[in-house]
Amino acid sequence: MRVEKQKETIDLDKLIDNITLQSPNPSKEHSAENSFSRLMAKIQADSNSIDIFRRKASQYRVWLAAATVALLIAMSGWLYMMLDTDPSFIVTANNSGIVQHVILPDGSNIKLNNRSKLIYPEHFSKDSREVFLEGEAYFDVAHDKRHPFIVRAGELNIKVLGTKFTVNASSQMPQITATLLEGSIDVADKKKHMLMKPNQQLTYNVGSGKMLLTEVTNASRETRWTENIWVLSNTPLLDICQRLEQQFNVKFIIMNDELIGKSFTGEFYTNESLDSILKTMQMSTPFKYEKKEGNIIIK
Fold first, then answer.
1. For residue 77, what are the domain limits?
2. Which residue would you say has higher pLDDT here, 25 or 184?
3. How far apart are CA 56 and CA 60, in angstroms?
4. pTM score, two decimals?
């Protein structure tokens, strides 16, 4: 038991060091490390106010650190300020394999996809309604023009008054996408912003910071995942592999260069097995694959 405790402490120390090394030169007061420490203090002081910590917070300490290092780097200043104004945070992490329904304090309805996390205060501030997303979520925001609703997703701030839209901001993906169904939303990074209209999709390249706005013929199709259905519509194989890597915690290695440019169309239930999905894909484009030490090798 003592050995496990020592290992837990060592793992946590490494993660805290990682936060310090990767944080983009924040002030000491607003650093990710300081924000993380403050968040952990809040969790330990009042574990009942946070959904995911229904058991003792110490049991989740290393798990939370691993899950939030990347998030804290992007959100350290916001988290610090929010902790000052509202001591109670709710952290919802969905690892159930199916879509999870979340109702926010203002009555907004959120559908949180598998392997996604949503952080929000128990009570919104008097000026705005701010949440932080890592992963994919569908937002049906309660209208309130006096209190803008802001989704912080990586480098993006998505500001709305009351509308319906989806955001996919997985840290494992090279881009963030937002699709608007109703109303309007303003999407901004540190340098620019774009105003979106219904049936438009915005793609933000995390590496270059480039924003691309395109029209979609059926925006509601982008929300089929809320029904636990994964829709492919001429989806490139590389994008599919990235999604499957995230969902099944595997690594794809494509040995056949001819397959790299291939796209696939179809629908899958999100609770289908990896083998079932790959075998269905083989029906339209013949290929072979094998599993080896956590890798899926496509030939």
1. 2-87
2. 184
3. 8
4. 0.67
